[in-house]
From TrEMBL:
It comes from Desulfofundulus thermosubterraneus DSM 16057. GO terms for molecular function: L-lactate dehydrogenase (NAD+) activity; L-malate dehydrogenase (NAD+) activity. The keyword NAD applies. Catalyzes the reversible oxidation of malate to oxaloacetate. Substrate binds at R83, R89, N121, R152. Residues 148-305 form the Lactate/malate dehydrogenase C-terminal domain. Its EC number is 1.1.1.37. This is Malate dehydrogenase. Keywords: NAD, Oxidoreductase, Tricarboxylic acid cycle. It catalyses: (S)-malate + NAD(+) = oxaloacetate + NADH + H(+); (S)-lactate + NAD(+) = pyruvate + NADH + H(+).
């Protein structure tokens, strides 16, 4: 059997970290592509030279030429600018829209059967841009946000309880912005609802910290945004597709009536497998949860309104 082929567009912080996690997990051969000459080549070779030490087999290629991405099974788009302190993800829209459009055109030309996972911010709208530019069916174009936002919430809950990070499960819905919706009612520690273990006011603090989780890192780093947890989150999605794992993961999926929304990308729980987004799961929400989701959807919608015609 031939190895799978993963292309990562953008060899910056998130792209290179994705390559690192994907190589370590032996998910396939990896192509790192960027507009800057030398950076993808250098990072790819450096990472491949870790293979004898770490014991993974993957050919990792760095390039500036889309021909090298030909026939990729999965393409991760991280190309674009990241925010700095004081900026919102939405401030990246104009610049990143052009980048995601041009990248997607090239990706589609060489890998017409690929699954595209978008990472570039503002995430929900950039995923929409990739969908419209690619002409791919929506199950093959989705965005990474909820896995990361949920991982942050899981981290805070585990630290609060002094328990294993692995034992906390949850999901965050909505757009990847400050009004995302962490689902407290669906958050468990070893199968026990956290509302039975943690006082409500402490949970509220963790929900707020999750919503601002990206900015917390930006404010520390000053020069850019998070990349370790984002890279790991992307690779969990890549693995779910390439191994047809049928994971239930929160992803930015294209909604066509689910939860009452049409023609919009929003974070929802979905089954992710060999068919990409195989099914969006519609769970029951309280009126308060639905109102919070509506607010988040409205923010995404407002940003879509200022997009150039696609
Ligand atoms: N969805 C999410 O949860 C997350 C999204 N992000 C977003 O991911 C994006 C990348 O972040 P970083 O890797 O930290 O930024 P970075 O600045 O380290 O890397 C971005 C790379 O994209 C490249 N690039 C720019 N235009 C390109 C083009 N047309 N074709 C190919 N490559 C191009 C740049 O040369 C650079 O190497 C940002 O928009 C950031 O906001 C970051 C973390 C989490
Ligand atoms: O905050 C940012 O700009 C990057 C990002 O999306 C995150 O880390 O959640």
């Amino acid at each position: 059997m031939k190895r799978k082929k993963i292309t990562i567009v953008g060899a910056g912080n998130v792209g290179a970290t994705c390559a690192h996690w994907a190589a370590a997990k032996e998910l396939g051969d990896i192509v790192l592509i960027d507009v800057v000459e030398g950076i993808p080549q250098g990072k790819a070779l450096d990472l491949m030279e870790a293979a004898p030490v770490e014991g993974f087999d993957a050919i990792i290629t760095g390039t500036n030429n889309y021909e090298d991405t030909k026939d990729s099974d999965v393409v991760v788009i991280t190309a674009g600018i990241a925010r700095k302190p004081g900026m919102s993800r939405d401030d990246l829209l104009a610049t990143n829209c052009k980048i995601v459009q041009s990248v997607t055109e090239q990706v589609v030309k060489y890998s017409p059967n690929a699954y595209i996972i978008v990472v570039t911010n503002p995430l929900d709208v950039m995923t929409y841009v990739a969908l419209k530019t690619s002409g791919f069916p929506p199950n093959r174009v989705f965005g990474m946000s909820g896995v990361l936002d949920s991982a942050r919430f899981r981290t805070f809950v585990a630290l609060e309880l002094g328990i294993s990070f692995e034992d906390v499960t949850t999901f965050v819905m909505g757009g990847h912005g400050d009004d995302m919706v962490p689902l407290v009612r669906y958050t468990y520690a070893g199968g026990i609802p956290i509302e039975k273990l943690i006082p409500a006011e402490r949970i509220a603090v963790m929900v707020e910290r999750t919503r601002k989780g990206g900015a917390e890192i930006v404010n520390y780093l000053k020069t850019g945004s998070a990349f370790y947890a984002p890279g790991a989150s992307v690779v969990q999605m890549v693995e779910a597709v390439l191994k047809d794992k049928k994971r239930i993961l929160p992803v930015a999926a294209y909604l066509q009536g689910e939860y009452g929304y049409h023609d919009i990308y929003l974070g929802v729980p979905a089954i992710i497998g060999g068919g990409g987004v195989e099914k969006v799961l519609e769970i029951e929400l309280t009126p308060e949860e639905k109102a919070a989701l509506d607010k988040s959807a409205n923010s995404v919608r407002k940003l879509m309104e200022v997009l150039p015609q696609l």
